[in-house]
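Researcher: I need the complex structure. Ligand is 5-amino-5-deoxy-1-O-phosphono-D-mannitol. Inputs:
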Amino acid sequence: MCGIVGYIGNGNVYDVLIKGLHRLEYRGYDSAGVAMVSPEGKLKIYKARGKVENLEQYCKDKDLSGCVGIAHTRWATHGEPSDLNAHPHYSDDGRLALVHNGTIENYKVLKDALTQHGCKFHSETDTEVLVQLIEYIKVKNDCSLVDAVREALKQVVGAYAIAVLEKDNPDQIIAARKSSPLVIGIGEDEMFLASDATPFVEYTNEAVYLKDEEVAIIRRGEPLKIVSLENEESAIDVKTLEMGISQLEKGGYPHFMLKEIFEQPSTLLDCIRGRVVEGGRRIMLNGVQDNKEKFLGEKRIVIVACGTSWHAALLGKYLIQDMCRLPVEVEYASEFRYSNPVLDPSDLVIAISQSGETADTLAAIQIARGMGAFVYGISNVVGSSIPRATDSGTYIHVGPEIGVASTKAFTGQVMVLTMLAVSIAQLRGTMTSEQIAQIGSCILRIPRLVEDVLKLAPAIERLSLIYTYARNFLYLGRGYSYPVALEGALKLKEISYIHAEGYPAAEMKHGPIALIDAEMPSVIIAPDDHLYEKIVNNVQQVKARGGSIIAIVTEGDTVIRNIADHVLEVPRVPECLTPIITSIPLQLLSYYIAINKGKNVDMPRNLAKSVTVE
Ligand code: M6R
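Model: Output:
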């Protein structure tokens, strides 16, 4: 969590930083701050609790001149959201300012030692320890800032992406990273740094992704220099960004979330482009053919992920089991990493993460690789940490997802998992060519069918008005629709703050059925699949207890239509593709309910898009 930005160049420093912070606000919005050094060597630090707009308000009558600057948007870990705990933090003597994304695990030990040396701390954060430690080393060793940063980071345990500014040296920024992302943008006579490339994509498409324990020396008028903590110089690997500025704007929609829901026909098209070939008869997914022996040799697949990506992972289990006849286990990455897992080189681990930065998923990957397993990653953000930490993998290619609630990334992940399952089945010979062609040709039709599903939006908006003030919701599904129920419930919880539970519909009778009354709506995902007859019984059970029912059914349904209070019809697709189609009405329902309640759907309270802390 937390977003950091830095800029050195001839442009308007404050404007570049504030715009950058807005782009990174999805990473946290508990407080924001900027530090700038003016050409005459004055260090100015402005901070405000809350969103970036509060900081802008605060800065209105301030001196905003500067030739270099760093900025931060915070997701609080150590210390409550407050002006005092907001970044940038500064050294005791006021010469250094620092922004940080990550957590310093040994901050208490370092803080105690520095306090004994007379350092005074002004905040409750772990971050302040870093800036005080750097200053302490700099003075003690009478060394340059970069040397002090290297030495300080050798003493630190934890995760960091930092940028440091020095009052007496307005022509440089020193930055470093370990386990938290940091990318440097190289423009003409200007350089940027940020947690991801979105703050500088409109100025340059040349980016350098810093690696763990690398320190960047960003100096005005000089080429970028990168050294290790041991001061060995690294080669500069410049990548060209594929992202465009239009992808980072709302494009006429009131919220990123709604834009991203409506983008799904095109994001799914991008996701399948070039991968489903010969009219659907063959699927080619990156990293499968070239690691054929791994996909043929594995005895078991373990999928690790968090949140929405975990729901996609659960669908991955159903897909791979069905199509490849392989045992699959699905683990929350945060549990897996501390569960003393049993893995060996015959296991294949799949790690799923939209951001590619989730700390628990990254740790799970390291553990799995440490035990000799082959790890295949599925991510959205190109160049992020997870694709670099895995043995092989692929991208979902759905473009930047800005809304904190994941929508287009979920359908992209499920699509990639479907294509992955078919690819493995192709290799293993567990599906006939007719079966592959049937699914392949339907995958090609999905973007078009999703357009039809989106036409339900006005009906869902009307329906949302009836249920806006419900205090609890149940989401029920069976088979492929069970993970969809979990995802639907998560969407509602995170943006409308209504309590919602996803449940396997048949498990209801073992407890949750006691909750059903006229006040408890149930959303039942009931497409016409091999469990349809079974779920009809579950629908009856809810109805018999006076609960109201919103059902997602296949078009032409006649049975559930007569029992449920409201039905939303979606196009008929093969069972394995129903989750992509049925999850979209649930995204819209959550969106409209949250809007009716006046909630900020793009930035729900307490959440951040990228969870880079444990
Ligand atoms: O970037 P990741 O896919 O690893 O993120 C995992 C979760 O933090 C994420 O899916 C979260 O649950 C979303 N807010 C859900 O909408």
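Model: Summary of the prediction. The chain has three domains: 3-248, 256-453, 457-596.
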